[in-house]
């Protein structure tokens, strides 16, 4: 009976062995291998954002996150010495020096029942390699791509920032996210008892793909100078905020777009919030810089000439009973059309602009881009606003830049259009893209639209030179260069109805061979409300710096100006 029992038991085991190894062998082996497989995600590096010369403004660097599975830490067995005990304390003593942490505090972080908890993020590669080599139970080392902005707040209003997962949240990081972000890959491998890859074991992988890199039109040096001058002037004048735009009139490339108080994208949480780039999202009434459109319109329509004579009082009452006045009280003046622009006379501009029908006035504002987005490749651009057209006063005040609101790019584009022989070029900040293999592809050529004739543009440019040579914009002059431009002082409504002031100067240099359109805009300056006092001197400084950086030669001719008085 015992022999029979032994035979039966052996037969059962033999049958089971045949069943497991022969019948179910392949499926059991597959199940066992599946349990040994590990799948990890490989990060697709995010493309860089660089300035026009390849200077990195945003880049991704290799970093590691250190985390813990608290349930496994207790498996650690030290050497039994006081400085290497078993369990969480032993792990903490070995890990703390590398993480720059207190061992006792770190030990507390390691104790618990959580399967995942971050200990430290953004650890440098050399530190991560040392931690990984220790093979500490429960301690995980995961590679991540950390987004770094090497120049801090420089162009932070344009660049924006990403979240902890590397997804663009603001600025170009957000608007260009689909192309900047890489495609993640995966690795599936057979692991050993301690998580190591088994040599010769199963392995399958899909490589990660790096994102494309964006090359901007921004010049880092000019951007830095613009931000520095702007922040200094905002502080010196007690302004609420300000903007500087530097644009190439020939190509529409924005070389600098500075907003005061630009946030550091490395520390986006330190900012008080608000609009990232007020220069494109916030609007204001341009004031006297808007007179350029009025002058271009009446000249293009053939209604006046630059030498027509006007009797210009301090106050003027029009046929519907509305009264307008100039910024300074003065005796009645005898000015030409060019003189009205040079002296920035509101009453003279109303007389000249009244030759346009109301429909013509608004049609020309729209033709110059007011009321519609410029199409610049930055998120959040405002189209601007028009005041109540049926108001008895509005159709007149639009002639001198009130009753209409624009963003800084729109305001700058008016003079850029005049300087470019009357052709508007769509402004943009992305110059092109570089693929991971190094192939550069330029952006599509900017759209070009003729707004006024070349003859009218040349006439307006000469009139704008009178503003700097003989009129309100003399403080914008740059030694050795001919400058054309216009001052602006506009009343604005802020903070739910409180009266505010926007002071500005927008100009072109060199006036004889136009290259740059530059605007300096300050909101609510306390030291003076006039653009000639607070904005024009800054234009002179940033203009001189940009011309030097770009190697633009001094003007080779002298201006032949129209008479401004009679």
TrEMBL record:
Domain Penicillin-binding protein transpeptidase positions: 242-542
Every Penicillin-binding protein dimerisation domain range: 44-198
GO biological process terms on file: cell division; cell wall organization
Subcellular location: Membrane
A Pfam family that the UniProt record links to this protein: Transpeptidase
A GO-annotated cellular component: plasma membrane
Gene3D superfamilies per UniProt: 3.30.450.330, DD-peptidase/beta-lactamase superfamily, Penicillin-binding protein 2a (Domain 2)
Region annotation Disordered: where it falls in the sequence: 258-281
Keywords assigned by UniProt, alphabetized: Cell cycle, Cell division, Membrane
Similarity remark: Belongs to the transpeptidase family.
Protein name according to UniProt: Cell division protein FtsI
Species of the source: Cellulomonas uda
């Amino acid at each position: 009976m015992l022999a029979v029992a032994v035979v039966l038991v052996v037969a059962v085991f033999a049958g089971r062995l045949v069943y497991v190894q022969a019948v179910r062998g392949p499926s059991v082996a597959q199940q066992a291998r599946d349990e040994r497989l590990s799948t990890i995600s490989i990060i697709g590096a995010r493309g860089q954002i660089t300035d026009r010369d390849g200077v990195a403004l945003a880049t991704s660097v290799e970093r590691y996150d250190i985390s813990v599975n608290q349930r496994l830490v207790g498996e650690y067995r030290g050497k039994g010495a006081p400085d290497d005990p078993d369990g969480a304390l032993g792990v903490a003593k070995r890990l703390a020096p590398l993480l720059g942490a207190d061992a006792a505090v770190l030990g507390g972080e390691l104790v618990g029942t959580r399967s995942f908890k971050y200990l430290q993020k953004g650890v440098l590669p050399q530190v991560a390699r040392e931690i990984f080599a220790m093979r500490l139970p429960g301690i995980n080392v995961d590679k991540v791509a950390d987004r770094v902005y090497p120049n801090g707040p420089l162009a932070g209003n344009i660049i924006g920032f990403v979240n902890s997962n590397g997804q663009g949240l603001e600025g170009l990081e957000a608007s260009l996210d689909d192309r900047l972000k890489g495609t993640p890959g995966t690795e599936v491998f057979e692991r050993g008892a301690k998580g190591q890859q088994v040599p010769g074991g199963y392995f399958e992988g899909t490589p990660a793909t790096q994102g494309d890199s964006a090359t901007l039109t921004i010049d880092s040096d000019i951007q830095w100078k613009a931000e520095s001058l702007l922040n200094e002037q905002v502080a010196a004048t007690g302004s609420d905020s300000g903007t500087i735009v530097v644009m190439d009139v020939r190509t529409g490339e924005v070389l600098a777009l500075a907003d005061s108080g630009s946030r550091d994208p490395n520390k986006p949480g330190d900012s008080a919030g608000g609009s990232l780039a007020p220069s494109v999202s916030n609007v204001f009434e341009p004031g006297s810089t808007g007179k350029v459109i009025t002058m271009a319109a009446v000249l293009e329509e053939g209604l006046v000439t630059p030498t027509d004579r006007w009797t210009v009082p301090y106050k003027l009452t029009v046929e519907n009973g509305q009264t307008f006045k100039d910024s300074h009280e003065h005796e009645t003046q005898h000015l030409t059309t060019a003189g009205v622009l040079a002296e920035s006379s509101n009453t003279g501009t109303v007389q000249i602009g009244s030759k346009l029908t109301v429909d013509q006035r608004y049609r020309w504002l729209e033709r110059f881009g007011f009321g519609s987005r410029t199409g610049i490749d930055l998120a959040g651009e405002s189209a601007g606003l028009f005041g109540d057209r049926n108001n008895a006063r509005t159709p007149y005040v639009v002639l001198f830049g009130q009753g209409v609101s624009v963003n800084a790019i729109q305001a700058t584009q008016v003079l850029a259009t005049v300087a470019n022989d009357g052709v508007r070029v769509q402004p943009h900040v992305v110059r092109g893209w570089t693929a991971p293999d190094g192939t550069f592809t330029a952006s599509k050529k900017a759209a070009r639209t003729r707004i006024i004739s070349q003859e009218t543009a040349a006439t307006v440019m000469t009139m704008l030179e009178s503003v700097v040579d003989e009129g309100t914009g003399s403080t914008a002059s740059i030694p050795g260069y001919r400058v054309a431009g216009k001052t602006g002082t506009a009343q604005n409504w802020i903070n739910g109805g409180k009266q505010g002031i926007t002071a500005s100067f927008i100009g072109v240099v060199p006036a004889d061979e136009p290259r740059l359109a530059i605007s300096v805009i300050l909101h609510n300056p306390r030291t003076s409300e006039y653009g000639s006092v607070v904005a024009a001197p800054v234009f002179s400084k940033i203009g001189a710096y940009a011309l030097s950086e770009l190697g633009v030669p001094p003007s080779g001719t002298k201006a032949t100006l129209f008479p401004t008085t009679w």
